[in-house]
Design goal:
- By secondary structure, this protein is mainly alpha-helical.
- The protein has two domains: 79 residues, Double Stranded RNA Binding Domain, CATH 3.30.160.20; 78 residues, no CATH class.
- The protein contains eight helices and three strands, in the order ααβαββααααα.
- A three-stranded antiparallel sheet has the order 1-2-3.
- Strand 2 and strand 3 form a beta hairpin.
- The protein is elongated.
- The protein starts with a helix and ends in an 8-residue tail after the last helix.
- The mean pLDDT is 89.
Length: 163
C-alpha cells in the first residue's frame, strides 16, 4: 500500500459507480436480530477495494441497495483512515459534517498532516489553517477518526486526547 498514497485522493473523489467498479463485492445474509426477513435475504454488502486492499461492509438495512451505498461510504472513510500520502494537504479548513461527501477527503488530509507532524495536534492544525481547538473538535466528530489519532499518539509515546 506504499504507492497507494499517490492515488488515494483520486479514489476518494470517484463517483459511487466508479468506486464500485474498482471493488470486489459480495452479498450475504445479515447477522444479528431481525427475524425471518433478515435471515432469508442476502442484503448485506461487503466491498473490497482492489487497488488498496481496504474493505468495508454494511448490513444495517433490509435493502441491498441501501447497504451498498452505506458500504461505499464506509469504504471511503476506511481508505482515508488507512492510506497516507506525503506532500501538502489536499484539503484545508474546518471539517464538513461526517455525512458530507467531502468528509473522507478531509479526514485523509487531517491524518496526513498529523503523520507529517508526529501527531502533534497544534502543528497539524497550523498546517491545515485551523486553531488547535477547532482541529480537535473536528477530529472528535467521528469516533473511528478519534480512535486512529489516539492509537497513533499512544504508539508515539504521546498522551491520548480527551473529548
Amino acid at each position: 500500500m506504499a504507492d497507494a498514497g499517490k492515488e488515494r485522493d483520486q479514489w476518494l473523489t470517484l463517483s459511487e459507480d466508479e468506486l464500485w467498479r474498482q471493488c470486489r463485492h459480495e452479498t450475504c445474509r445479515g447477522s444479528g436480530p431481525g427475524g425471518q426477513k433478515r435471515n432469508k435475504t442476502e442484503s448485506a454488502v461487503r466491498v473490497i477495494h482492489l487497488p488498496s486492499g481496504v474493505a468495508a461492509e454494511d448490513d444495517a438495512s433490509r435493502s441491498q441497495h441501501q447497504n451498498r451505498l452505506h458500504a461505499l461510504r464506509k469504504l471511503r472513510l476506511e481508505i482515508a483512515l488507512r492510506v497516507r500520502r506525503d506532500g501538502p494537504p489536499a484539503v484545508t479548513g474546518p471539517a464538513p459534517g461526517p455525512q458530507a461527501e467531502a468528509f473522507a477527503r478531509w479526514v485523509a488530509a487531517a491524518l496526513d498532516a498529523l503523520a507529517a507532524n508526529g501527531f502533534r495536534i497544534s502543528d497539524a492544525a497550523d498546517r491545515l489553517g485551523l486553531s488547535t481547538a477547532r482541529f480537535s473538535k473536528d477530529l472528535a466528530k467521528h469516533s473511528a477518526v478519534w480512535q486512529v489519532v489516539n492509537k497513533e499518539r499512544e504508539r508515539l509515546g504521546l498522551g491520548q486526547l480527551r473529548q
